[in-house]
Amino acid sequence: MFLVLSILYFFSGIFFGLDFTDSFYHLNQALHPADGIYLYPFFLSSIIINTIVEIIGPEIIYLRLINSLLLFFSLLIPFIFIKIQKPLTEVIFSIACVLFLFAPLNVNILGYDSLSIFILSLIFSLSILYVKSSKLYLLMLLSILSAAAVFIRLPNLLVIPIVFLVIGFNEKIHKGCFYAKDLKLPMIFLLLTLLWVYLGFSVYYSNVEEFFSASANSTSHDIKILFSHYFRHGLKLILFISLIIGGHYFFRKLQCLMPKLWVYILIAVFFAIFIGFFVSSSKYWQNYSLFLTSLTISILILQIIQDRKDLFSLKNMVVYLYFLFLFINPFGSNTGLLKAVSLFLLLPFVLSLNDLKLKQYWLLILIVLLPFSLFEKFYRTYEDKGILSLNTTLELELLKYINTNEFRAEFLEKINTEVLELKNNNIQVYFYGDKGHVFHYLYPKTNLNINSFFQPVEKMVYYPKIEQVINGKINTAIFIVDSYPGDGFKELSFLELSLMKNGFHRVSKGPVFYYLRINE
User: Fold this and answer.
1) Cα 75 to the chain's mean position, in Å?
2) Between vectors from CA 77 to CA 71 and to CA 78, what angle results, nearest 5°?
3) Looking at the predicted structure, is the pLDDT value of residue 217 above 90?
4) How far is CA 519 from each of CA 170, 427, 467, 512, 513, rounded to the nearest angstrom?
5) Residue 127: predicted pLDDT
6) Calpha distance 177→169 (Å, rounded)
7) CA distances from 437 to 19, 203, 232, 340 (A)
8) Global pTM?
9) Pairing relationship of beta strands 476-480 and 428-432 according to DSSP bridges
10) What letter would DSSP give residue 277?
């Protein structure tokens, strides 16, 4: 019953909340890329998404369902390939718990993140299978899948040295020692993978210039910003891990000094207060994500300490591999270490191969976390209001069955009415701004041929591109959507002032406004 409830809870989020930004940006890159060329940092993701849309249709509800299925099967893949010895009831319980805890993070429509999680789960599983069997066909398969992971998301390059190490350590484990000649198989894997990567890019991109021009152009991936996020999140991880491992130590000691019931109450109250003040107070589940990652790493550390007499057992090899895989998705991500939580889905499998000591302690943390999972899910809907406020079902064909707040739904309907009227009057419509990606999806070919997610209005970096697109076009309307509806009045930006100098005038109709230039 708990498993069924967790699955329903995990999938229920597909009906609630609507962001205008990230998910739609990646859909647009897959369906309507600028200049008709996919961006190389995730070009295979775009091909896969495009294919899925052609098969099942463009309605968002179906794409959200596919996204959730990808995550769900990412959790199950290791169990398909690797036989486990744990009782089925324990495995089912751990799967249900992880689904329940991960549900607030299941927010995407369909993008490279979920595709990346799926293929990393597959590579993780086949790497373990290779360690068990040393079959050469698995080495070939791992090289192909590792290249595919790079095509899905370029920073997945980190998976190549990790699998290289797995193959190398496997030689040491089976032979008891490691010589230079034993680098043969790891080197074969490495060369094959790099060959597939080279062939994949060279087949799609006709030359080097086209390859480098097909970049994301994202200023958010500045090295200083990345390391700033890594540093801040790393400090939080160290704090959370210290508290979890410290709590584990005190739980074991206190059981000898006071009644167990009081120990349980003391530990539960401590984590309830800590999670309440320091975890649930962050925006978009940041600290909640970091806490789940810290919980995972704490379990891995204690497991290694527990089995330190047999460091190269299969169980410990799985632990080491899982630890390394946790940091593939955060690699190169402008969200710092937040994406480490994405492979939290693999924790049930790792637990199925290991025995947790002091299970009561982990159960206490779980009991405390479950209500916070509900809180994060119901009151922190990604880029929207809480679920209880999402009481308006959208009528737009591509967004049907999706519930959002009343004001956002009204805004979308008014935009739709205005766009249809403009098109009926033979006026070319464009959208510009970071919060306008949903409209590029609803109205294809309105992106001004700009492939960047970030579209500033105070910096004129893309104004030459805008001028290039609208040059010679008289009947043109440009919607500037750089903030969510209802964010309040703002002074005219440099971009808007420049458009007005270029013959556009501002048209305001309630919360909807745009810039219009027509032939009088």
Assistant:
1) 15
2) 125
3) no
4) 72, 10, 17, 22, 20
5) 95
6) 9
7) 9, 29, 29, 26
8) 0.91
9) parallel
10) I
